[in-house]
Design a protein that fits this description.
Elements (H helix, E strand, L loop, with lengths): L2 H6 L1 H13 L5 H4 L3 H8 L3 H22 L2 H4 L2 H21 L3 H30 L4 H8 L1 H21 L1 H23 L25 H6 L1 H22 L1 H8 L3 H5 L2 H22 L10 H8 L8 H29 L4 H28 L4 H23 L14
Helix pairs in contact: 2-8, 2-9, 2-10, 2-11, 5-8, 5-19, 7-8, 7-11, 8-9, 8-19, 9-16, 9-18, 10-11, 10-16, 13-19, 13-20, 16-18, 17-18, 17-20
Length: about 400
């Protein structure tokens, strides 16, 4: 990684890292730590809890589809501040609420503010603020996801028996307001424009055309890419969401399973930085046909082997796919479709991602209630990965050729 690039852009890159780190409290790997407590207190089965998660997350995806374009019109610092205030209020609600119907709205709020908007704002800012080093900038911003994955689930698993799961959510609210909000406001106080670019604010897509959201939605190759977006989110989410079920079925302890999260995060970090470099050098096309395959292999290891090592291996392989995805997707949409409407365009892709994370818990929870455990479902997920990877290869063969950015652009 170019030291001059890092030093010159440390503040903007740090803003991306902090914004993606903030998303952790609305991500499945964090919420699922409290799944058994939530199901116990609200009297829910696996299927009912999965259905609540699905409905709330689908509503989040639909809302993000419209709200995501705010990233094109509102300054990063202002928009992030508004999101973090709402995010903290939802965390307080998680601590105080006792009504199962209100729980649906609270999960919606966590998913929309965390997994959805704050993450969307961070990656969209990287796509707009950088050009020649966009892949690396997106990969660096994605480190926030990995830091959260490595530290926060384990911290929550330790805090839950000590202070209670509700009090843990009060701590989350305090962190968002007292630590993250002022830090983000300071880091993102000034917008950045790519250098070495005649149009400092925007550049067109590969074909020289400036794409609108409507154009993208009519583009058959964009529609062909959506299964890859949905599948990675679907499978990646349910691996974490069903941790309580997997622990019970395999005879493992939840706390010792969270010890594998740093393996997942470390793999994600290393692969993401390598993938960011590869995206800048060769473009994202080289990675697209292959990025899902490690996830398919990983999920296939959950169930056939009784040893806890299989869980560690599964998360390590999943981290490879996640690392590539972190670096690839944020750069892909900007490169293919340009940056003038990148917030709105990326919101479509983000909504598809959130939709995948929504339907996964609902479907797998329902099937578990029917008597088919996660281990029985995993081979079908692995087979779907192979089919979608073949579709991705077809898409790459039909995309416009890549136009190299100017060497002086940063």
């Amino acid at each position: 990684m170019d030291r001059v690039f890092l030093q010159a852009n440390a503040r903007w890159l740090s803003a991306g890292v902090v914004l993606t780190l903030c998303s952790s409290f609305g991500q499945t790997y964090f919420i699922s730590i409290f799944a058994d407590r939530i199901m116990g207190e609200y009297g829910l089965t696996d299927g009912q809890w999965g259905a609540i998660y699905t409905v709330a997350t689908l509503a989040s995806a639909a809302t993000l589809l419209f709200a995501g374009s705010l990233a094109d019109r509102v300054r990063v610092s202002r928009l992030a501040t508004l999101i973090l205030i709402g995010y903290a209020a939802i965390a307080v609600g998680m601590a105080l609420n006792e009504n199962v119907y209100v729980l649906i709205f609270l999960i919606f709020g966590l998913r929309f503010c965390g997994q959805g908007m704050i993450s969307h704002v961070g990656i969209t800012a990287m796509a707009r603020w950088f050009r020649a080093h966009r892949g690396r900038a997106v990969a660096i911003a994605g480190l926030g996801y990995s830091v959260g994955e490595a530290l926060l689930p384990g911290a929550a698993a330790l805090a839950e028996p000590l202070i209670g799961w509700r009090t843990t959510w009060l701590v989350v609210a305090a962190l968002l307001i007292l630590i993250f909000l002022p830090f983000v406001a300071w880091l993102a106080r000034d917008e950045r424009s790519p250098r070495g670019n005649a149009d400092a604010d925007h550049h067109p897509g590969r074909d020289g055309h400036t794409w609108s959201r409507r154009d993208v939605l009519r583009h058959r190759l964009f529609l062909a890419l959506l299964p890859a977006v949905v599948a990675s989110s679907f499978i990646g989410t349910v691996v974490f969401f069903q941790i309580a079920h997997i622990a019970g079925a395999m005879g493992w302890q939840k706390l010792e399973m969270t010890a594998a999260y740093p393996v997942y995060a470390g793999t994600t970090i290393g692969v993401s930085l390598l993938a960011g470099w590869a995206v800048d050098r060769w473009g994202p096309d080289r990675l697209l046909p292959w990025f899902l395959l490690p996830l398919g292999m990983g999920v296939a290891f959950i169930g056939p082997f009784a040893g806890l090592w299989s869980w560690f291996l599964a998360l390590g392989l999943s981290g490879i796919t996640t690392g590539i995805a972190h670096a690839m997707w944020g750069a892909y949409w900007a490169e293919i479709y340009g940056t003038r409407h990148i917030g709105g365009i990326k919101a479509i892709a983000s909504s598809a991602m959130v939709m995948g994370s929504a339907i996964g818990p609902g479907i797998t929870g329902f099937v578990i209630d029917l008597g088919v455990g996660f281990a029985g479902q995993a081979p079908w997920m692995a087979a779907s990965v192979v089919a979608i990877s073949l579709l991705n290869a077809w898409v790459v063969a039909r995309l416009p050729a890549r136009t190299e950015p100017a060497e002086t652009a940063v």
